[in-house]
Amino acid sequence: MTLQPLLKAEPETRSIFVHTFGCQMNEYDSLRVVRLLAPLGYRSTTDISEADVVFINTCSVREKAEQKVYSFLGRLKPLKQRRPHMKIIIAGCVAQQLGEKLLARFEYVDLVLGTRAVSSITGLLEHAIETGARLVHLPEIDPGDELEFHCGLNGVQTHVVAPVTIMQGCDNFCSYCIVPFVRGRERSRPADAIIREISLLVESGAREVLLLGQNVNSYGRGLETDISFVGLLRRIQDETDLARLRFTTSHPKDLTDELIRCFAELPCLCAHLHLPVQAGSDEILRRMNRGYSRSRYLERIDRLREICPDIGLSSDVMVGFPGESEEQFQDTMNLLKTVQFDSLFSFKYSDRPDTRASRFPDKVPEDVKARRLTELQNLQAEITLRKNLDEIGRIRDVLVEGTSKASKEQSTGRTQQNRVVNFDNPDVPAGRIVRLRITAAFAHSLLGEAI
Ligand code: 5AD
Ligand code: SF4
Predict the structure, then answer these.
(1) CA separation (Å) from 303 to 215, 255, 308, 310?
(2) 105 Cα–ligand 2 center, Å
(3) How many domains are there within the chain?
(4) 174 CB near ligand 2 (under 6 Å)
(5) Tens of pLDDT along 117-131?
(6) Tens digits of per-residue pLDDT, 357-370?
(7) The domain spanning residue 85 has which CATH number?
(8) How far is the CA of 235 from the CAs of 44, 45, 195, in angstroms?
(9) pTM (2 decimals)?
(10) Quick check: CB of 355 below 6 Å from ligand 2?
(11) At CA 210, angle to CA 238 and CA 308, rounded to 5?
């Protein structure tokens, strides 16, 4: 009997199942939810059937991504019938876009949280549990000032590679893109808050940080303290003990010489850049409202390779933008041949609500888009494989992330250029940087041996 009050003081253990669609910024927000709910006794589970809370972070950047969210939600119905006390929360871009409509369409969803509502989750979830209310929360601006705010790690395990969001929203209004509508205007997070979070992550085991934002090159605009993205990178180099730093996404129009020089000057900055080009035709780039030409993009690539000859480059491209002719598609193919990206994410254009491009005429038929995508992906597969084969014999430093998924006998990690390398030795602790000689190359990874 005397133990009763003590037991009550401890939060009851409950489990949360998290599923994240879309980008790394969503991954980061999901991680924050796990950290925020940890003090209430929530522990992550990979078994959805035993979850007390199911948190789904959604993406609406492409139509296909949005469809995946709906099919996942459809599968939750029988689960909720079996576990009526289970709370289902939908957050992210689809939540922001549809709000109330999600509650109406999926009668078993309990909470809909917009893209600026993550920090409110604790109170809203407790309210929903106590009252059984179904709630929608889509604040214009973050109530808890999401950008300043950092909840601490709260005992949640830190991985070797940790994401850190440095800004939210986007002001670019590329004509195809829904992001400015669902993520709002661009806002930067104060540098001190970023440095504090990185220091904490490093203390708890992170060796590499991935800085996140829709357009990191414009970091700092609107902040009280005058700081640029380059200034932030320099502060991270000087004030933290981070081994490796990356960032995404960069916009080609804002990629300054000063930022390019960082690849030569900052020891922690990895020789890798993701620089979405989207298309190789000037006319398409103009109608996408990208703010650069093909020649300007190629000039930036030349400059990057001049400053950092070993840099790994990746990109995003889209096929079948409204009005894209066969010739304009070939301009994209030629650009890929010219640049020789190490890896590429490629998509079929799809109409997104509210965007200007969704109202453009001359939509490209689905079968043409599909054919162009296959052609483009075949070309890139050849380039990626050849570039991987070029790695054979080279010596690379690999940050070990854990045991390889393919074999329990191997460890896996990444080179600075962001290539996956597996090597025989399952006992190297995650977080160690090992020097390997590359001995074989495949479509998506390399094999290495210790030297
Ligand atoms: N259709 C297809 N792809 C898109 N992307 C963004 N919007 C669309 C759209 N409407 C792609 C771009 C972007 C990546 C994140 O998604 O290539 O860089
Ligand atoms: Fe979308 Fe363009 Fe902003 Fe990227 S830069 S999020 S593509 S509007």
Answers:
(1) 20, 10, 8, 12
(2) 29
(3) 4
(4) yes
(5) 888 899 999 999 999
(6) 999 999 999 999 99
(7) 3.40.50.12160
(8) 33, 36, 8
(9) 0.93
(10) no
(11) 70
